[in-house]
Amino acid sequence: MTVLSARLAATCSGVRVVDLTTPLREETPIRQPPEPFANTSRFRLEELSRYDGKGHLGAPVHWITGRDGLDVARAPLSTVVTPAVVLDRTVDAGADPDFLLRDRARAGVGAEDGALADAGWLLHRTGRAARGADAAAFANADIGSRTPGVDPECARWQARETPIAGFGVETVGADAGPAPAPEPAFPCRSELMGAGKPGLTSLRSLGELPPGPC
After folding, report:
1. Of 190 and 10, which is predicted with more confidence?
2. Nearest 5 degrees, angle CA 17-CA 22-CA 27?
3. pLDDT, averaged across the chain
4. pTM, whole model, 2 decimals?
5. Which one, of 167, 158, 164, 187, lies nearest residue 175 by Cα?
6. Could you read off the pLDDT of 174-213 as tens digits, one per residue?
7. Three-state SS for 63?
8. What is the chain's alpha carbon radius of gyration, rounded to the nearest angstrom?
9. Measured between alpha carbons, how far is 20 from 22 in angstroms, rounded to an integer?
10. How many Å from the N-terminal Cα to the C-terminal Cα in the chain?
């Protein structure tokens, strides 16, 4: 056993690791933006070698507002391996396909600023992961591909006034669908990436984490 592996074994003793990523396969939901935006082609797998694809970390550099920021290769480990706060909004999102986090109180963090200050990631649970094997149901395709998200003012607050390292969601993008409608368009990407805060999308198993700090 190497010194590193010994340290990891000691550190992780008694710790349960929960995988929140989405497997990448042909039925994996992908972004379907409305016109005039061009849609992404469906994923198709041609096996050249065996690999394991997952949900992804959206680094700041991949959005215009964060073009001078870090890419995934340069993201500090402290950004990825860090505590989190889980906001469980499955009831709200289940009743309203257009559900948005609108302010501190509705985001559920107004009374937990201390906990949030100690957290790295803010994770938004909407119950969307339960539909992950059905792309149409996942995106509410029968009513216009509407999915939950964050309104511009709340996105601005997360980016500029909170100490979070990043924002994670169960949907295929941090913004609500259809995202181009708000002003600015794609407010989560625009604000968070511009503030150097990455996003995590297509998370799974958030229901296995307790609401609140974890």
Report:
1. 190
2. 155
3. 77
4. 0.72
5. 187
6. 888 766 566 778 888 899 999 999 998 888 888 888 888 8
7. coil
8. 17
9. 7
10. 30
Identify residue 154 by its one-letter amino acid code: C
Domains of the chain (ranges, CATH numbers)? 19-213 (3.50.30.50)
Place of tokens 């096996």: 47
Please name the residue that has the structure tokens 């309104």.
151
Residue type, 205: S
- In three-state secondary structure terms, 150 is strand
| Residue pair 66/193 in contact by the 8 Å Cβ criterion | yes
- d(C-alpha 192, C-alpha 148), whole Å: 17
Amino acid at 87: L
Token pair for 151: 């309104």
The answer for residues whose C-beta is within 8 angstroms of residue 198's C-beta and 6 or more apart is: 57, 58, 59, 60, 70, 75, 79, 165, 166, 192
Number of Cβ within 10 Å of residue 192's Cβ equals 29
Q: Which two tokens stand for residue 32?
A: 């379907």
In this structure, which amino acid lies at residue 62?
H
